[in-house]
Amino acid sequence: MPTYHENYVRRGSIFNKGEAGILLNNTAVGVMVDETLDMIKRLTIRQAKGFMFVDEMLVDYNDGSVGRDMMRIKHSPSNISEIKNGEYAIYFEGI
Hints:
The relative contact order is 0.24. The chain starts with a strand and ends with a strand. A three-stranded antiparallel β-sheet has the order 2-1-5, with no helix packed on it. A two-stranded antiparallel ribbon has the order 3-4. β1 (3-10) and β2 form a beta hairpin. The chain has two helices and five strands, in the order ββαββαβ. It has one domain. It is α+β, with helices and mostly antiparallel strands. The longest helix is centred in the middle third of the chain and has 16 residues, at 26-41. The model has no long low-confidence stretch (mean pLDDT 84).
């Protein structure tokens, strides 16, 4: 269930001044991810007399827990995680 809090702060922040907001649970984030991926798959751009559309999409469910793993550069498709193996990361906490 989504949870409202008046002061969500990014974990690890040195300041306790955050923002009011709603923190989504794993199910809600999953719905948003699925809907966003679906919109990207169906994306079509029409300009002048030409069309551009998505014909292939590769998703990386990055499960790295250290900073260098989260921002890693993919040198080949074999370096990615195409299957979601855990819960989505939560970067904020209510203080």
